[in-house]
Amino acid sequence: MAKGYKAAAKRALAEQPQVRESVTRATLHFDANRARAYAEVEAEAWRDWAAATKRHTLSRLDRYLIQAEARLLASGAEVHWAEDADDAQQILRELIDRYGVQRVVKGKSMLSEELEVNGLLERLGVEFFETDLGEYIIQLAGEPPSHIVGPAIHKNLEEIRALFHEKLGTPPDASPGALAAAARKVLREAFLTADMGISGANFVVAETGTVVLVENEGNIRLSTSAPRVHVVLAGIEKLLPRVCDLEIFLQLLARAATGQKIGTFVSLLNGPRRPDEPDGPEHLHVVFVDNGRSSVLADREMYEALSCIRCGACLNTCPVYRQTGGHAYGQVYSGPIGIVLTPGLRDPRLAEDLGYACSLCTACADVCPVKIPLPKQILTWRVRSAKRAPAAERMAFAGYAQLMTRPRFYRISGKLLRIAASLTGAPWLPVLGAWAAGHGALEPSPKSFREIWEEDLGNA
Ligand code: SF4
Asked: Per-residue pLDDT for 427 more than 60?
């Protein structure tokens, strides 16, 4: 059976039409909100500045990481470095042992998905709760997230009603408010009894060692302040040099993600609870994770992908993502940024499949708040994959390139193709196979464009 994005997309379209409907509706809504929110400000100038700030940070990442570590240590946090997912899991395992953790509450974190933290917690017998409502829904459903910002974007109300009815015993026709209340009841109890909170980080400010978290539900604030231990999982690319950089980044993130002026809850965390503070964790651990980021950073054509602030705007505007949602990509990161990041983080060979989940419409480049050249990078992955294509395919394209760069051959072959097409009576030659099947039929013109043009010039 065929594997990869193409096969998964085909299956999703045939078997789950409701996914397409839900994803399209939600992403169009997000995208319209983003467009309106960008129009309210000097978005181009903000995006240029944000892109330059991120490029600057990436170009001095070693320096900013050391600075952030020093500030975090000075604030009373412990800092850990994880080269890959195994390292990160080992660090978590040791912390869970050290504090005798039995119950964990989690804030939404794509890095936690990348590191397969839930699998680790399950293996260790630690009870855990995803506390973002969307994440909680997909935890109940036993599914991975389908979108960076809206993990349950692919589910409609009927599906969530059925799920909550089965798992939480809510009435089969419960209102959205009643569903949220049922989730809140479970999660409140979890916040109050958990030993450890695990979160990601939207940004880490190097000059102060501040961990910045942005959310709309207040669940991250509870996850990071109620339990006695808080563990932050932060990709090494999450740094910003200065606190004042947040002024633009916080607004850009919210505007790009949902069209809000700023996230409903913005938490700036500086170390664990001080003796005179009423709440907050007794222990704060920050785990800086590489997991392939250094090799992306070393790639001159790809490093800007590390500027990503995970707003999801490129997914929302992508006509390909809208058809299937994120699961068809079969990876943690989907949509345009997933196509660019996944082969760099995991395996370049993944680009042979993912690189083609793109129509090269370039809409993603127009919306990205940090101006990552996503279409150019996707094309670069295609070029790299093409170098590993089967010999016959490479020969066919080399021949095609010869043809297209020699006007005489081009004219003769065009003539031959028109004759062949008129003899077979078929508008497409069989050699075009599946590619032709996905396109509208064209009737071959009896004359080439050049012949018609020359005739017209003669008649003028
Ligand atoms: S690549 Fe740009 S648009 Fe896409 S999620 Fe990242 S920051 Fe947002």
From this structure: no
